[in-house]
Amino acid sequence: MAITTGHIDIRAADGGVFQAYLARPANATQAPGLLLIQEIFGVNAHVRAVADDFAEQGYVVLAPDVFWRVQANVELGYDQDSIKQAMGLRAQIAPEQMVADLRDAVAALKALPACNGRVAAVGYCMGGQLVYRLAATGAIDAGISYYGARLLDILDLAKQIRVPILFHYGELDKGIPLSEVDAVRAAFANQSNATIHVYAGADHGFNCDQRGSYNAEVAKIARERSLKFLRASL
Fold it and tell me: What is the pTM of this model?
């Protein structure tokens, strides 16, 4: 499917303005929206490629810059220096502030003429945690969290999530041990809206083809499951 790409400005609730990458089907009159939430490395070439792929599948995809309050238009690689810089940026912004900005991005996405008003979110690592937080606010119609880190301290938010949510985890992810995955599963034990997949032999970042941990086979399976989930949820 042919797509068009570009950037739009989003006005934050406190009056600031930040940018987001937009990819959408070229010929569709209206389509479901998908908020794509970055890793700690910014809206870089990989994130834009993922956005383009989802757009080719028929979604209006918006990838907002969540670091704009500290440094706008961050684009980092995956080497150790970039990791250090990215961690420093993340430490300067409270998750609650990022969620507030993401809610503004959801509103902007819904307001686009190309969007039919239904919006899901997909996020990776830091973005995966933010999908979980965002879903708890009721701002989205569905969520997909790829190896969302550091959920142990916010497991209580699970009971606030009423929309379908899909989790992808790597079995070998040292930053998210299987005990943490089990804790997430337990947090949703009394709810039927969560689906959790753990991929044997996969490590953190398995979806990113620019990382050493990229696992093409697992990434393909997770992508197919995510697209099926989106079709069913939107």
Answer: 0.98
